[in-house]
Amino acid sequence: MACVCSIDILKLVAAQVGSQWKDIYQLLCNASEREVAAFSNGYTADHERAYAALQHWTIRGPEASLAQLISALRQHRRNDVVEKIRGLMEDTAQTIFSVMWFKKALSYP
């Protein structure tokens, strides 16, 4: 996967964007209506379609990045989702720091 977007971030975005996933995917991939329609087959809910489309974007484009995803969300006025991504990343960073600190503390006699 070329994108630095974690599965958690893709799931978070997919759960939040609703039917806007189509517009966001088109912006990210310059996708045709036909391409977008392909995700409607086989999935019953928008969050499932959104997740499949976002996964496809990360695989399809070597330029896929978190910055590109955030830019697309902002262009569609979804700053609320951008803030949730930021919160998720801060929580993840705090967890990593805590684990590293704990391991270091265990290594001291």
Automatic annotation (TrEMBL):
<protein>
    <recommendedName>
        <fullName>Death domain-containing protein</fullName>
    </recommendedName>
</protein>
<dbReference type="GO" id="GO:0002250">
    <property type="term" value="P:adaptive immune response"/>
</dbReference>
<dbReference type="GO" id="GO:0097252">
    <property type="term" value="P:oligodendrocyte apoptotic process"/>
</dbReference>
<dbReference type="InterPro" id="IPR022330">
    <property type="entry name" value="TNFR_21"/>
</dbReference>
<dbReference type="GO" id="GO:0031642">
    <property type="term" value="P:negative regulation of myelination"/>
</dbReference>
<dbReference type="GO" id="GO:0042130">
    <property type="term" value="P:negative regulation of T cell proliferation"/>
</dbReference>
<dbReference type="GO" id="GO:0007165">
    <property type="term" value="P:signal transduction"/>
</dbReference>
<dbReference type="InterPro" id="IPR011029">
    <property type="entry name" value="DEATH-like_dom_sf"/>
</dbReference>
<feature type="domain" description="Death">
    <location>
        <begin position="6"/>
        <end position="89"/>
    </location>
</feature>
<dbReference type="Pfam" id="PF00531">
    <property type="entry name" value="Death"/>
</dbReference>
<dbReference type="GO" id="GO:0006959">
    <property type="term" value="P:humoral immune response"/>
</dbReference>
<dbReference type="GO" id="GO:0030889">
    <property type="term" value="P:negative regulation of B cell proliferation"/>
</dbReference>
<dbReference type="GO" id="GO:0051402">
    <property type="term" value="P:neuron apoptotic process"/>
</dbReference>
<dbReference type="InterPro" id="IPR000488">
    <property type="entry name" value="Death_dom"/>
</dbReference>
<dbReference type="GO" id="GO:0005886">
    <property type="term" value="C:plasma membrane"/>
</dbReference>
